[in-house]
Amino acid sequence: MLEQQLQLKHTHLRNRLVMGSMHTGLEEGWHNRKRLKAFYQARAKGGTGMIITGGYSPNIRGKLTPISSSFNNFYDVIKHRAYTDVVHQNGGKICLQLLHAGRYAYHPFNQAPSAIKAPINPYKPKSMSIGSINKTVKDFAHSAKLAQKAGYDGVEIMGSEGYLINEFMAPHTNQRDDLYGGSLENRMRMAIEIVEAVRASVSDSFIIIFRLSVMDLIPNGSTPDEVTIQAKALEKAGVDILNTGIGWHEARVPTIASMVPPGAFKEASKRLKDVVSIPVIAVNRINTPQIANDILNAGEADLISMARPLLADPELFNKYQSQQSKHINVCIGCNQGCLDHVFKGKRATCLVNPQAGFELDYPLTHVEKAKNVLVVGAGPAGLSASCYLAQKGHNVTLIDRKQDMGGQFNLAMRIPGKEDFNYTLTYFINELARLNVKIELGTDYAESMLDSYDDVVFATGVRPREATFSCKDGKRVFAYDEVIRGEVELGNSIAILGAGGIGFDMVAFLSESPKQTINDFKSQWGIECDAAPHKDSRQLYMLKRSAGRFGSELGKTTGWIHRQVAKQHGVKQISDCEYIKFDNQGLTINVAGEEQVLPVDTVIACIGQVSNNEALSSLDDNPKVHVIGGAKLAAAIDAKRAIYEALQVARTI
Ligand code: SF4
């Protein structure tokens, strides 16, 4: 199904896979032009039917930040020619996304229908005058006309996620009493005028996609009936394809994070499809061809948008079409390399594919003379290093003292909402077989091995840091890994020591709350969901030694979800505390100079890790030895750094 062509008015797409709009951080200025071209080239070459660019503002006040990209002059046309040409040369189509940020614009000149500040932006917007609205409509049309000159096949008008056009549609942000506020007809007037103006400024064959917010997920958003009317009116105004928008950025419902079930929002696309005759695109958490095909086969959408999955694997479509789906590097919805980077003003990349966005920076060149390389440790760093080294043409042997592969992946995938790590482990195992990596499990490293290899990569990972305070009455502090593996019996009142990523994962593990959050929201919208998961009745405490807010170091796009889960489960959080002893009375702690006893029967240490690097002490200066991942530095180790370091070490060997 995914491979079927889609005939539009005067054009056809070679298949139904659309790369959804995603800001990469390469859009601004001229200096990253070649990098962005290489990024699009890889995705078009990989078989993607149509690419939608990151968002470009039609005018200066609609820019997301003062340095964000706009598209409104002749120089933009010249610059973007490079992108459209390379996509067309590789058989794809490409549309420019036009995005006016409205009250989400992160600068003091932002505009909105009404002067109501967004909770996620310190800048209060100015209410737009009628003149300013008219000018903005013309700016959209002007940009679309230039986009056609630059060789684009169409534009996507961003009308969702809480940006300007969406703000006009929803009473939540539109409290005007003129022609553009009040009734639904008035609130959607600007959207319709933009579509009509764009349609009038481009040729008939030029594709107009409108991304319509089907579920705002905020108070006083558009109702389902209003969305139906908006969709029909947009079709009548000249839209060729409707894309499904889900949730404003300020919404407190997870929409794309890993705990959102696959294809969770397909019903939203189906609702659009039921009321219009133009093609509809399904979005959000569609990360495998299987899920995409299920949606298409069920008639829930005509096209499938994947943005992050094409960061994870630009060859996704080609692999699917050549029956090589098991070699697709699947997006796991973590946001760690993509959106968390973008929100920090860094270039987007991908946890499972650090070459994404860095195609020109981190190429892997095939070697002329193969080396014999030993990789020690089959966790995230060792697995990925073995694959990268073998891709370069080296003869790779991978050993691990355990009988199974995966290391920390095996723990991560048991956390509710992180099950997709299983895809990554499976991908690496399949790649090892494809690349003929020799695997010896149950094998410990011995110094005698050193002479048999040209290079040795140590990726021996980490183990949990142990708590050092006293335990009495036969009590013991459990390590997080033995809890996750189900090796120990837990009581009814549990203290989790540590409030980093592992501490919050432990809360999710013990409470199953992420799934509950999604189900609660889906039920509100009358969407069928799985049976409610078991709600744990245990009392959880979360303790940390440092002062300050819990979870402040978590990723920007998912940290709030973890904090929300802890809150929903009634986790009692205590900061700035010292751990004294654990006995039959409970856990004695000292908080701001005062001792107190928490009545807990179980204590779990999530207090960091230490490197497994004992074998390295005698190898410090050996030039053939390379150390990566947690074995190199245990602090703040995660799969993103492990795989990144694996790529970098492979590039040097
Ligand atoms: Fe997907 Fe995570 Fe990669 Fe982003 S960083 S594309 S969410 S796997």
Q: Could you walk me through the main structural features you see in this protein, from its secondary elements to its overall organization?
A:
By secondary structure, the protein is an alpha/beta fold. It folds into 3 domains: 52-88 and 98-301, Alpha-Beta Barrel (TIM Barrel), CATH 3.20.20.70; 372-463 and 610-652, Rossmann fold, CATH 3.40.50.720; 466-607, FAD/NAD(P)-binding domain (3-Layer(bba) Sandwich). Helix content is 31%, strand content 18%. It has an 8-stranded parallel barrel with strand order 3-4-5-8-9-10-11-12, surrounded by 7 helices. A 5-stranded parallel sheet has the order 15-14-13-16-28, covered by helices on one side. A 5-stranded parallel sheet has the order 19-26-20-21-22. Strand 23 and strand 24 (586-591) form a beta hairpin. Helix 1 runs parallel beside helix 2 and helix 17 packs across helix 19. The longest helix has 20 residues, at 130-149. Residues 529-534 have low confidence and may be disordered. Bound molecules: iron/sulfur cluster. The site of iron/sulfur cluster has 14 residues, from helix 10.
List the helices and strands and how they pair.
Layout: E1 6-7, E2 12-13, E3 17-19, H1 33-45, E4 50-56, H2 74-89, E5 93-98, E6 111-112, E7 126-127, H3 130-149, E8 154-159, H4 164-169, H5 184-187, H6 189-201, E9 207-215, H7 224-237, E10 241-246, H8 266-273, E11 280-282, H9 289-297, E12 303-306, H10 308-312, H11 316-321, H12 339-343, E13 372-376, H13 380-391, E14 395-400, H14 408-412, H15 421-434, E15 438-441, E16 455-458, E17 462-464, E18 470-471, E19 478-479, H16 480-484, E20 493-497, H17 501-511, H18 513-524, E21 539-543, H19 559-568, E22 572-574, E23 577-583, E24 586-591, E25 594-598, E26 602-605, E27 609-611, E28 625-627, H20 639-652
Parallel strand pairs: 3-4, 3-12, 4-5, 5-8, 6-7, 8-9, 9-10, 10-11, 11-12, 13-14, 13-16, 14-15, 16-28, 18-23, 19-26, 20-21, 20-26, 21-22
Antiparallel strand pairs: 1-2, 17-27, 23-24, 24-25
Helix pairs in contact: 1-2, 3-6, 13-15, 13-20, 17-19
The structure holds iron/sulfur cluster.
